[in-house]
Amino acid sequence: MLARAARGTGALLLKGLNILIPVLDRIRYVQSLKEIVINVPEQSAVTLDNVTLQIDGVLYLRIMDPYKASYGVEDPEYAVTQLAQTTMRSELGKLSLDKVFRERESLNASIVDAINQAADCWGIRCLRYEIKDIHVPPRVKESMQMQVEAERRKRATVLESEGTRESAINVAEGKKQAQILASEAEKAEQINQAAGEASAVLAKAKAKAEAIRILAAALTQHNGDAAASLTVAEQYVSAFSKLAKDSNTILLPSNPGDVTSMVAQAMGVYGALTKAPIPEAQDSVSSRSSRDVRSTDASLDEELDRVKLS
User: From the record, what ranges are coiled-coil (predicted)?
Assistant: First the structure.
């Protein structure tokens, strides 16, 4: 703490031992070099959008030059307080209501810069300024609350619509995947069915070819013609017995009760088939049989190729 003594011209009393002459010397000013906290009274301010606010704050300052603080201004604290109030009103008039709440830090910094520029000649330095309370008129507060509620409803509506959209997208994607999987399953089923049919046709063709080869081999053996004739006779009798079952037209022999005549007729067919052909006929039959076998093999190969291609 420094004291200012008045003796004709003022003398600064420094720290340590100072001698004062009674009556002639007396302490005029006492200045503290500590940081000083000053409450800025509440005041009215009008924003850029013509909204009246009640605002107060706290000012932190320090005396940097006791001589200027003592002789540069009559009451330093009062002068700084008035300067802070006028500067705050001026800065608030440059901002809208929404920016006042969003830019409090920049507003405090602007007030500090303005105070330091004006209080430099007073030997005082403003360290910081903080806005304590901002009071809004009741109607403005109600409109702000309505605006906040409308903004919340808007966000809720947007979120709900986004959820509906995502749900619709997910449903559509699920249907798409289901259709793709169903088509793939149907395709696999058709492929398996075609493969099964192809395998069945191939097995039947192989069995038929093998039967033809066995039959051709059996015909070339001894008494092969007789066995074939007997088989034809049996098939003739079996077909004759089914005539009345497969058609509305019934063919009956002249003596249907004579089974011997029917057997004799079948044996007659058998005897006609067992007549020995001439050698040239046998050769032609043998060559025709071999050609039939080869043609059967060729047709079988073509059928197998067609099955593979399908």
Answer: none
